[in-house]
Amino acid sequence: RHGARIVLDAAQLVPHQAVDIAALDVDWVAFSGHKLYAPFGSGVLAGRPDWLRDAQPYLAGGGATRKVARRADGRLDVEWHTAIAARHEAGSPNVIGAYAIASACRALTEAGFDRLADRERQLLAQLRDGLAAVPEVRVLSLFGPDSARVGVLSFVVQGWNSSHFAAALSAEYGIGVRDGLFCAHPLVRTLLDSAPDEPGECGAPDAAPGERSLNAIRVSFGVGTPDEHIARFLAAVRALVREGARWNYVTENGRCVPARD
Hints:
Layout: E1 7-9, H1 21-24, E2 28-32, E3 43-47, H2 49-54, E4 65-70, E5 76-80, H3 84-88, H4 95-111, H5 113-132, E6 137-140, E7 152-157, H6 162-173, E8 178-180, H7 185-191, E9 216-220, H8 227-243, E10 249-252, E11 255-258
Parallel strand pairs: 1-2
Antiparallel strand pairs: 2-3, 4-5, 6-7, 7-9, 8-9, 10-11
Protein backbone atom coordinates (compact mmCIF):
# COMPACT_ATOMS: atom_id res chain seq x y z
CA ARG A 1 0.00 0.00 0.00
CA HIS A 2 2.85 2.40 0.84
CA GLY A 3 5.49 0.91 -1.45
CA ALA A 4 7.63 -0.29 1.47
CA ARG A 5 10.05 -3.16 0.93
CA ILE A 6 9.62 -5.94 3.45
CA VAL A 7 12.74 -7.73 4.71
CA LEU A 8 12.42 -10.95 6.72
CA ASP A 9 15.27 -11.75 9.12
CA ALA A 10 14.89 -15.53 9.10
CA ALA A 11 18.12 -16.43 10.90
CA GLN A 12 16.28 -17.96 13.87
CA LEU A 13 13.46 -19.37 11.74
CA VAL A 14 14.91 -21.37 8.85
CA PRO A 15 16.49 -24.12 11.00
CA HIS A 16 13.12 -24.84 12.61
CA GLN A 17 10.51 -24.76 9.87
CA ALA A 18 10.05 -24.37 6.14
CA VAL A 19 9.95 -20.78 4.87
CA ASP A 20 7.87 -19.98 1.79
CA ILE A 21 8.89 -16.54 0.54
CA ALA A 22 5.99 -16.28 -1.89
CA ALA A 23 3.40 -17.29 0.71
CA LEU A 24 4.80 -14.78 3.22
CA ASP A 25 4.73 -12.07 0.53
CA VAL A 26 8.10 -10.61 1.55
CA ASP A 27 10.56 -8.92 -0.78
CA TRP A 28 13.76 -10.13 0.82
CA VAL A 29 14.80 -12.94 3.15
CA ALA A 30 18.16 -13.20 4.92
CA PHE A 31 19.61 -15.94 7.11
CA SER A 32 22.94 -17.22 8.42
CA GLY A 33 24.45 -20.50 7.36
CA HIS A 34 25.69 -21.50 10.80
CA LYS A 35 22.17 -21.29 12.25
CA LEU A 36 21.23 -23.87 9.63
CA TYR A 37 23.99 -26.34 10.68
CA ALA A 38 26.35 -25.17 7.92
CA PRO A 39 29.85 -23.82 8.71
CA PHE A 40 30.44 -20.27 9.89
CA GLY A 41 31.15 -17.49 7.42
CA SER A 42 28.36 -17.81 4.87
CA GLY A 43 24.79 -16.64 4.57
CA VAL A 44 21.96 -15.97 2.16
CA LEU A 45 20.22 -12.85 0.90
CA ALA A 46 17.42 -13.71 -1.51
CA GLY A 47 15.12 -11.17 -3.00
CA ARG A 48 13.46 -9.65 -6.02
CA PRO A 49 15.84 -9.91 -8.99
CA ASP A 50 14.85 -6.54 -10.46
CA TRP A 51 15.83 -4.71 -7.26
CA LEU A 52 19.08 -6.65 -6.96
CA ARG A 53 19.86 -5.86 -10.56
CA ASP A 54 19.31 -2.13 -10.07
CA ALA A 55 20.91 -1.82 -6.63
CA GLN A 56 24.41 -0.45 -6.16
CA PRO A 57 26.93 -3.29 -5.78
CA TYR A 58 27.52 -4.41 -2.22
CA LEU A 59 31.29 -4.63 -2.79
CA ALA A 60 33.49 -3.07 -5.45
CA GLY A 61 36.12 -5.25 -7.01
CA GLY A 62 36.95 -7.91 -9.52
CA GLY A 63 33.90 -9.66 -10.90
CA ALA A 64 31.46 -6.91 -10.00
CA THR A 65 32.99 -4.46 -12.47
CA ARG A 66 32.33 -4.95 -16.16
CA LYS A 67 34.51 -2.06 -17.32
CA VAL A 68 36.75 0.49 -15.62
CA ALA A 69 38.08 3.46 -17.60
CA ARG A 70 40.08 6.53 -16.63
CA ARG A 71 38.77 9.91 -17.71
CA ALA A 72 40.88 12.83 -18.87
CA ASP A 73 40.62 14.42 -15.42
CA GLY A 74 42.05 11.28 -13.84
CA ARG A 75 38.81 10.09 -12.26
CA LEU A 76 37.43 6.64 -12.97
CA ASP A 77 34.25 5.58 -14.71
CA VAL A 78 32.93 2.20 -13.58
CA GLU A 79 30.41 0.08 -15.44
CA TRP A 80 28.93 -2.65 -13.27
CA HIS A 81 27.87 -6.08 -14.38
CA THR A 82 24.14 -6.52 -14.93
CA ALA A 83 24.24 -10.20 -13.93
CA ILE A 84 22.95 -10.30 -10.34
CA ALA A 85 25.48 -12.75 -8.89
CA ALA A 86 28.49 -11.02 -10.42
CA ARG A 87 27.20 -7.56 -9.54
CA HIS A 88 27.01 -8.24 -5.80
CA GLU A 89 29.77 -10.80 -5.27
CA ALA A 90 33.09 -9.13 -6.00
CA GLY A 91 36.21 -11.22 -5.60
CA SER A 92 36.47 -14.97 -5.30
CA PRO A 93 33.09 -16.49 -4.47
CA ASN A 94 32.68 -18.56 -1.32
CA VAL A 95 31.93 -21.74 -3.24
CA ILE A 96 32.44 -24.04 -0.26
CA GLY A 97 30.14 -21.93 1.90
CA ALA A 98 27.39 -21.86 -0.73
CA TYR A 99 27.64 -25.62 -1.24
CA ALA A 100 27.55 -26.21 2.52
CA ILE A 101 24.37 -24.15 2.92
CA ALA A 102 22.75 -25.98 0.01
CA SER A 103 23.70 -29.33 1.57
CA ALA A 104 22.23 -28.32 4.93
CA CYS A 105 19.00 -27.17 3.28
CA ARG A 106 18.80 -30.42 1.35
CA ALA A 107 19.37 -32.53 4.48
CA LEU A 108 16.65 -30.69 6.45
CA THR A 109 14.22 -30.96 3.54
CA GLU A 110 14.87 -34.69 3.19
CA ALA A 111 14.38 -35.16 6.94
CA GLY A 112 11.00 -33.48 6.63
CA PHE A 113 10.32 -30.05 8.13
CA ASP A 114 6.86 -31.06 9.33
CA ARG A 115 8.28 -33.93 11.35
CA LEU A 116 11.10 -31.76 12.72
CA ALA A 117 8.66 -29.01 13.68
CA ASP A 118 6.39 -31.48 15.49
CA ARG A 119 9.36 -32.81 17.42
CA GLU A 120 10.43 -29.29 18.42
CA ARG A 121 6.94 -28.49 19.67
CA GLN A 122 7.10 -31.52 21.95
CA LEU A 123 10.49 -30.46 23.34
CA LEU A 124 9.32 -26.88 23.74
CA ALA A 125 6.28 -28.00 25.72
CA GLN A 126 8.54 -30.00 28.07
CA LEU A 127 10.84 -27.00 28.48
CA ARG A 128 8.07 -24.49 29.15
CA ASP A 129 6.27 -26.79 31.61
CA GLY A 130 9.52 -27.42 33.46
CA LEU A 131 10.44 -23.73 33.74
CA ALA A 132 6.88 -22.83 34.77
CA ALA A 133 7.35 -25.10 37.79
CA VAL A 134 10.22 -22.89 39.04
CA PRO A 135 8.66 -19.71 40.53
CA GLU A 136 11.91 -17.75 40.32
CA VAL A 137 12.05 -18.12 36.51
CA ARG A 138 10.33 -15.61 34.24
CA VAL A 139 10.07 -16.43 30.55
CA LEU A 140 10.33 -13.44 28.22
CA SER A 141 7.81 -13.10 25.41
CA LEU A 142 6.89 -10.25 23.12
CA PHE A 143 3.67 -11.77 21.80
CA GLY A 144 2.41 -13.68 24.83
CA PRO A 145 2.55 -17.28 26.05
CA ASP A 146 0.09 -18.61 23.44
CA SER A 147 1.97 -17.27 20.42
CA ALA A 148 3.74 -19.59 17.99
CA ARG A 149 7.35 -20.37 18.91
CA VAL A 150 10.33 -22.24 17.55
CA GLY A 151 12.96 -24.00 19.66
CA VAL A 152 14.33 -20.81 21.23
CA LEU A 153 13.34 -19.44 24.64
CA SER A 154 14.67 -16.53 26.71
CA PHE A 155 14.25 -16.12 30.44
CA VAL A 156 15.60 -14.49 33.60
CA VAL A 157 15.98 -15.87 37.12
CA GLN A 158 15.11 -13.80 40.16
CA GLY A 159 18.16 -12.93 42.26
CA TRP A 160 20.63 -13.90 39.54
CA ASN A 161 22.57 -11.92 37.01
CA SER A 162 21.93 -13.85 33.80
CA SER A 163 25.62 -13.98 32.88
CA HIS A 164 26.38 -15.54 36.26
CA PHE A 165 23.61 -18.10 35.81
CA ALA A 166 24.82 -18.97 32.31
CA ALA A 167 28.41 -19.32 33.53
CA ALA A 168 27.32 -21.70 36.29
CA LEU A 169 25.29 -23.79 33.84
CA SER A 170 28.36 -24.11 31.66
CA ALA A 171 31.07 -24.67 34.28
CA GLU A 172 29.15 -26.86 36.73
CA TYR A 173 26.71 -28.73 34.50
CA GLY A 174 28.28 -28.71 31.04
CA ILE A 175 25.29 -26.91 29.51
CA GLY A 176 25.85 -24.11 27.00
CA VAL A 177 23.33 -21.27 26.75
CA ARG A 178 23.54 -17.71 25.49
CA ASP A 179 23.40 -14.72 27.82
CA GLY A 180 23.17 -11.03 27.05
CA LEU A 181 20.85 -8.87 24.95
CA PHE A 182 20.91 -11.10 21.84
CA CYS A 183 21.57 -8.47 19.15
CA ALA A 184 18.19 -6.93 20.04
CA HIS A 185 19.18 -4.52 22.80
CA PRO A 186 16.16 -2.16 22.76
CA LEU A 187 13.67 -5.03 22.63
CA VAL A 188 15.25 -7.07 25.42
CA ARG A 189 15.64 -3.98 27.61
CA THR A 190 11.93 -3.31 27.11
CA LEU A 191 11.03 -6.86 28.09
CA LEU A 192 13.28 -6.52 31.17
CA ASP A 193 11.86 -3.08 32.05
CA SER A 194 15.39 -1.67 32.11
CA ALA A 195 16.61 1.77 31.08
CA PRO A 196 18.44 2.27 27.76
CA ASP A 197 21.68 3.28 29.50
CA GLU A 198 21.82 0.40 31.99
CA PRO A 199 24.65 -2.10 31.47
CA GLY A 200 23.84 -5.39 29.78
CA GLU A 201 26.99 -7.31 30.69
CA CYS A 202 27.80 -9.41 33.73
CA GLY A 203 28.91 -6.67 36.11
CA ALA A 204 27.87 -8.32 39.38
CA PRO A 205 28.19 -12.11 39.50
CA ASP A 206 27.19 -12.10 43.16
CA ALA A 207 23.83 -10.44 42.62
CA ALA A 208 21.90 -9.70 45.76
CA PRO A 209 18.66 -11.62 46.38
CA GLY A 210 15.87 -10.01 44.41
CA GLU A 211 18.22 -7.99 42.20
CA ARG A 212 16.69 -7.31 38.78
CA SER A 213 18.71 -8.80 35.95
CA LEU A 214 19.93 -6.43 33.25
CA ASN A 215 20.34 -9.15 30.65
CA ALA A 216 18.74 -12.50 29.85
CA ILE A 217 19.45 -16.17 29.18
CA ARG A 218 18.57 -17.87 25.91
CA VAL A 219 18.27 -21.64 25.56
CA SER A 220 17.76 -23.24 22.16
CA PHE A 221 17.56 -26.68 20.65
CA GLY A 222 17.30 -28.26 17.24
CA VAL A 223 17.23 -31.45 15.23
CA GLY A 224 19.80 -33.26 17.37
CA THR A 225 18.33 -32.49 20.80
CA PRO A 226 17.08 -35.53 22.74
CA ASP A 227 14.57 -35.47 25.61
CA GLU A 228 17.43 -36.19 28.01
CA HIS A 229 19.02 -32.80 27.27
CA ILE A 230 15.83 -30.98 28.23
CA ALA A 231 15.63 -33.00 31.44
CA ARG A 232 19.28 -32.25 32.29
CA PHE A 233 18.79 -28.55 31.66
CA LEU A 234 15.69 -28.32 33.84
CA ALA A 235 17.39 -30.27 36.63
CA ALA A 236 20.35 -27.88 36.50
CA VAL A 237 18.07 -24.83 36.64
CA ARG A 238 16.24 -26.22 39.67
CA ALA A 239 19.51 -27.07 41.42
CA LEU A 240 21.03 -23.62 40.87
CA VAL A 241 17.88 -21.86 42.05
CA ARG A 242 17.56 -24.10 45.09
CA GLU A 243 21.20 -24.55 46.13
CA GLY A 244 23.10 -21.77 44.38
CA ALA A 245 26.40 -22.09 42.54
CA ARG A 246 29.02 -24.41 43.98
CA TRP A 247 31.92 -22.47 42.50
CA ASN A 248 33.04 -18.87 42.87
CA TYR A 249 32.84 -16.56 39.85
CA VAL A 250 34.52 -13.32 38.87
CA THR A 251 34.08 -10.81 36.07
CA GLU A 252 36.80 -10.72 33.40
CA ASN A 253 36.43 -8.45 30.38
CA GLY A 254 32.72 -8.10 31.04
CA ARG A 255 32.11 -11.86 31.27
CA CYS A 256 31.43 -14.08 34.28
CA VAL A 257 33.97 -16.87 34.56
CA PRO A 258 34.94 -19.33 37.31
CA ALA A 259 37.49 -17.95 39.76
CA ARG A 260 40.93 -19.54 39.47
CA ASP A 261 41.43 -20.03 43.21
